[in-house]
Model the fold of this input.
Amino acid sequence: MIIGATLLVGATVVVLGACLLLVLLVVAVRARRHARLQRDAVLLSPLRMPLITVASGEDDDGSAADELRRATGATRDVLDRNVVAMLSKIRGVPADQLVQVLEEHGAVELAAAELTSRSTVKRARAAQLLGLARAGHAVPLLVEALGDEAVEVRNSAAYALGLIGDPVAAGPVLAAIGAPERGLPAATAAEALQSMGVGISDVLRDGMADANARTRMVAAHLSAERSFTRGLPELRQLLDHDPDLTVRETSATAIGRLGRGEDVDILVRHTAEADPLALRRACVVALGELGETRAVPALTALLDDSDPRLAELAATALLTMGPDGTAALVGHEDDPAVRTARLLVSLQKASA
Amino acid sequence: MSAPAGGPDASPVRILVADDDADIRDLVEFKLTQAGYAVEAVPDGVSAWEAFEASPPQLAVLDVMMPGLSGIDVLRKIRESEFGAVPVLLLSAKSRDSDVDTGFAVGADDYVIKPFSPRELLHRVNGMLARAR
Done:
């Protein structure tokens, strides 16, 4: 009994001691961080006004930028961190002037070297700086960083390549989505590719033949986003034959946005009951988006579909097709699908 | 690039700037002040609404994502107030079409996406004030 009580007291003391240590550790870390922030604020203080002057585009005689350039030692390090933070908030001539300050401080060159640092944080920050500084010469290094072991660095490199916007990087960014073990999130890659101009259309066409389904999906999606009609033959192939349902749905949506009159047939074909429901729905929406009145008979037939949502989408598509589409709804006014579609369309119009 | 004057003897046009990011708050304040406006800059939505109520400005530049009251919340309050016609420019990192749509639907007169050009922001402010006259 006494031994049990002693053990209990001992265990309680140990737990309380561990809690106390943890609290002390948290307090120490916070105090250190606070002290560092205070020190940084003191170091930056004399340069805060020149920084704001340059960032706001009011440094007409270049004197504020000169003051920033003259910073040395720890002050320069703190200033450069603040300049990088500022670069994520502004664009235009002031941003270019701040990049020049970073270049003269050697920060851009240092960042290129730090892409191979052992520290993940340093590699990710280096990639970010190179992107914000629009360091075109660092594109090959950033492309290499797309295969980094740390996902933070891969994301940061893709983000940087998007900011630089050189279409040379489009192929590697798209390929990085499907890299085994070290893949790039599809959304990150898509965002980076969005910024790379019209020079990426061929890369997207090649991407639609990639072995990786996520790569094909991003390529199909971006082809529509960027209105690359040259990719239509590949999109039709994907809709007809791709083994991945999401890729087929994405292709249907893309055809709806980019397609021509002749694409009514392929979309109608995949509204048949033999196709997966998600694909049928995507094709119906795409037909509405395409707006070809030749699709009216097929859409009208779908008003009686066994899937209520598909019937509703068909009614919505018809309502967006002008007089021909509206005429097809005569006799169906009391169908629940048509009533819901009318309500949704009127709500959309009201909120537009 | 000076501010539209209210007349030789008129007091400067007053603009309220609200942003929780000190960098942006300071540089917008500096840019507009250099252009001849009288700027009151505050760090959050609650302070923005208090400042607006205490002395309604001729224009407000509001960040969308702020602690407490968001820029959208402040904009709603402005539109419901007796000074609901004050032009409001939303400044935000939220760049999706739906975000911009929401801003205009609530009653914003303009929407600038971060990262932004300070020069362009000034042009827009000048234009809004000119149209408001």
